[in-house]
Amino acid sequence: MTSQNITSIASGNYLHPHFVAIMVFAILLLVCMTIICVVAASLIVVIVYILYDFIYWRVVENGRGLEIESDLEEGVERRRRRRHRRVMMELPCVEYGSFGLETTSTECAICLEDYNGGEPCRIMPVCKHMFHVACIDNWLNVKITCHVCRQRIFNLRNDR
């Protein structure tokens, strides 16, 4: 060793080039690991937030969504019932056996009972099928077609 090297070592100013390279590598490694940890922690926080938000909307808000959907279905059902009531009101009620009755049937196709004289009946305006008032009114609560031929009660032009 030379005297200059001994003096540098004694005073603490001498660092071996490999030692400096190792220290720089270690510092860079720590900085990179810190950045990776911060990014990973941020990703975990974002993933947890997204999962929480997804679960919240699927579980908590879904109940309210079902209520809205059932409200829509109730509205549709209410309109359907109103339309069916309107159809029943527009169908004339006639007495079986009255003069000029345009039907050849002698029994109700719904209850399969014979018509009695003076019994209230409804005749479908398009197809001319006849039914007891109570029988066809129950049918018309569900459908607005003829029970026998499934034809619409009124022409589409009149059924608005």
UniProtKB/TrEMBL annotation:
Pfam families: zf-RING_2. It is found in: Membrane. Gene3D superfamilies: Zinc/RING finger domain, C3HC4 (zinc finger) (3.30.40.10). GO terms for cellular component: membrane. SUPFAM superfamilies: RING/U-box. PROSITE patterns: ZF_RING_2. The chain crosses the membrane at residues 20-52. It comes from the Eukaryota. Keywords: Membrane, Metal-binding, Transmembrane, Transmembrane helix, Zinc, Zinc-finger. Residues 108-150 form the RING-type domain. InterPro entries: Znf_RING, Znf_RING/FYVE/PHD. GO terms for molecular function: zinc ion binding. Belongs to the RING-type zinc finger family. ATL subfamily. This is RING-type domain-containing protein. It comes from Linum trigynum.
